[in-house]
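Priority: medium. Attachment 1 of 2:
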């Protein structure tokens, strides 16, 4: 059976404006985006319209999802396009830039123009225009060279014209379009997305998307009572979207998923390379020569796709009365706020969601404080000494998150016994995790530090192929002297910095962070306590055995850390080095004797030379000659001895090299 639809109904549906879908759900994140869900009922054949700013369109085109219930199917999305300004202006025959009127006129050479100078009207065709800079005698001016209808050329001062007009209607329209394009580029007008459907009956449609949004912020109040602690959490939400949120379901997500901007909204143009076939040159005339012989002649080719967002279920948030800021507590006492912190929490993978129980209304341009937490928390008061440039520790609290929820990072205002105690910052705290926060300086406790060290001792000795390696240990101690001035017991946590290459010797920390050891001390009322922390640094030193003196080798041999095998090998090397040293001393003594004998030879020869020319001195010359012969014999004997010592040295050195090469323990 065919269903007849009245023509008037079809016409009215075709002429009806697209329906706007109200915001029903808002999910705010910590990385600059928000998830928005709009929902509503559409009449038969009716389209839906979503309005956004140009800056939001990139995220919308990346994340938009649509759910239509009622049997219909979404046939497509239409949206207001946005061409880059530079591309739109490139189509105009002129460009309005910083060159002034002269630069504009010069681009319109050949255009007809009409100018008015007082009572005189001048018309003609633009030849050229230029700007003339100022001189000492004349101000700057713009000159226009014009071809008049009479055929004369005339130079005009544009600054003197009281009116300028282009009679060409097409050129006038281009100016209007050019200026309109500039105005549109500065405009913050909203861009619309239209959702079309094939269904001819009423149906429900839901659209979800991500757009840039103000980050929600959290702040806490920590209230210490006599035996318990209470933590209040408030979410600060800003509505900067440009429209009211009326009874929306609100969720706040703690965590920082990866998000980025991809330029999907502006049309993208690709510069194509130019490619041309080689030009065919014109054929030249051919002059054929005549044949001498007769021979036989042979004559010789978009669809739109989006990342499916996690669509939040269940409505949420609070009425405007519940969103009002809490009344300040009467000074000076502070008590937990009278709030309805009805927010459920759940894990979303690595994220955590607070879903406000009641619908929330926040007008555009307004912000709201929404309570999302008020419950007891496990906490104890103590002191922390972490700033070693100060002699005072800080009042602190050790919080253990037993709320079953992730606590988003934010500032904490601490009230102790109903009075203001100080403020602190806390990073995001997962359920079951523990965190220390400092909120005030404790002037009733003073801490000083003293540093001491001991000489390094040798722990191990090893050798291989002539290299001796010693493992040394140096001990250093930092002593903390803590004085509790107050007449009450305190618990102090000392943060001792972790140093690379150092290990603890005498203390065991209660905790260890990436940068410090934490030691927990109990301080008696009005007492002073010393707390030493000893650390050891183990390092290696290497020596070349060939360059070590026998005395230094003796020190290594005497070390109790040396093995028996190593001691035996080093003793052999030390004995060999001593033999070489004795042989070197003998060689040095022989060298000195040879030097003395050589000096005597020179003296005797000089005496002989001086007496040879003196009459009657022959007997003395003969005596000197006998002495010279005796000295020569001694010198020959010494040279033979030195040669033997050098041969012995070479043999000893060869044996030493063998011992060093074989050294291993």
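Attachment 2 of 2:
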């Amino acid at each position: 059976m065919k269903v007849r639809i009245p023509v008037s109904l079809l016409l009215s549906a075709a002429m009806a404006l697209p329906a706007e879908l109200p915001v029903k759900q808002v999910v705010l994140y910590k990385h600059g985006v928000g998830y928005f869900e709009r929902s509503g009922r559409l009449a038969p054949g009716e389209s839906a319209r979503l309005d956004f700013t140009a800056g939001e369109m990139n995220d919308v085109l990346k994340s938009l999802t649509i759910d239509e219930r009622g049997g219909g199917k979404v046939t497509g999305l239409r949206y207001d396009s946005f061409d880059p300004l530079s591309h739109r202006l490139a189509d105009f025959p002129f460009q309005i830039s910083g060159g002034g009127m002269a630069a504009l006129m010069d681009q319109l050479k050949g255009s007809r123009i009409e100018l008015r100078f007082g009572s005189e009207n001048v018309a003609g065709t633009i030849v050229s225009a230029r700007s003339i800079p100022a001189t000492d005698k004349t101000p700057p001016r713009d000159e226009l060279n014009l071809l008049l209808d009479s055929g004369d050329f005339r130079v005009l001062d544009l600054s003197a014209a009281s009116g300028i007009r282009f009679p060409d209607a097409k050129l006038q329209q281009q100016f209007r379009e050019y200026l309109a394009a500039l105005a549109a580029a500065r405009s913050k007008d909203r861009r619309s997305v239209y959702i079309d459907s094939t269904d001819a009956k009423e149906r429900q449609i839901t659209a979800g998307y991500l757009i840039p949004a103000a980050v929600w912020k959290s702040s806490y109040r920590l209230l210490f009572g006599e035996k318990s602690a209470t933590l209040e959490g408030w979410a600060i939400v800003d509505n900067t979207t440009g429209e009211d949120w009326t009874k929306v379901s609100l969720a706040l997500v703690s965590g920082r998923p990866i998000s980025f901007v991809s330029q999907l909204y502006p049309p993208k143009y690709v510069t194509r390379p130019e490619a041309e076939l080689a030009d065919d040159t014109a054929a030249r005339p051919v002059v054929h020569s005549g044949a001498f012989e007769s021979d036989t002649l042979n004559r010789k080719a978009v669809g739109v796709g989006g990342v499916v967002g996690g669509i939040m279920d269940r409505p949420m948030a609070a009425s405007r009365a519940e969103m009002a800021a809490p009344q300040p507590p009467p000074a000076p006492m502070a008590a937990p706020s009278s709030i309805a912190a009805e927010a459920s929490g759940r894990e979303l993978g690595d994220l955590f969601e607070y879903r406000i129980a009641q619908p929330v209304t926040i007008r555009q341009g307004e912000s709201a404080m929404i309570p999302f937490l008020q419950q007891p928390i496990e906490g104890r008061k103590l002191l922390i000494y972490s700033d070693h440039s100060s002699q005072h520790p800080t009042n602190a609290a050790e919080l253990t998150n037993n709320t079953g929820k992730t606590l988003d990072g934010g500032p904490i205002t601490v009230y102790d016994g109903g009075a203001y105690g100080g403020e602190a910052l806390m990073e995001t705290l997962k359920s079951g995790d523990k965190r220390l926060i400092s909120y005030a300086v404790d002037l009733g406790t003073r801490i000083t530090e003293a540093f001491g060290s001991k000489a390094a001792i040798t722990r191990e000795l090893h050798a291989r192929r002539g290299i001796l390696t010693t493992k040394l240990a140096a001990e250093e101690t930092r002593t903390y002297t803590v004085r509790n001035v107050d007449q009450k017991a305190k618990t102090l946590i000392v943060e001792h910095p972790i140093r690379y290459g150092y290990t603890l010797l005498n203390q065991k920390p209660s905790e260890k962070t990436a940068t410090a050891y934490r030691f927990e001390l109990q301080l008696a009322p009005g007492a002073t306590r010393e707390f030493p922390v000893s650390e050891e640094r183990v390092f290696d030193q290497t020596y070349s055995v060939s360059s070590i003196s026998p005395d230094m080798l003796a020190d290594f041999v005497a070390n109790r850390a040396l093995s028996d095998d190593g001691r035996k090998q080093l003793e052999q090397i030390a004995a060999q080095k001593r033999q070489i040293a004795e042989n070197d001393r003998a060689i040095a003594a022989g060298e000195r004797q040879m030097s003395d004998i050589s000096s005597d030879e020179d003296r005797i020869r000089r005496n002989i030379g001086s007496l040879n020319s003196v009459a009657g001195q022959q007997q003395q010359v003969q005596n000197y000659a006998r002495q010279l012969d005796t000295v020569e014999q001694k010198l020959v004997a010494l040279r033979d001895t030195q040669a033997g010592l050098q041969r012995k040295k070479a043999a000893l050195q060869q044996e030493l090299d063998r011992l060093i090469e074989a050294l291993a323990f």
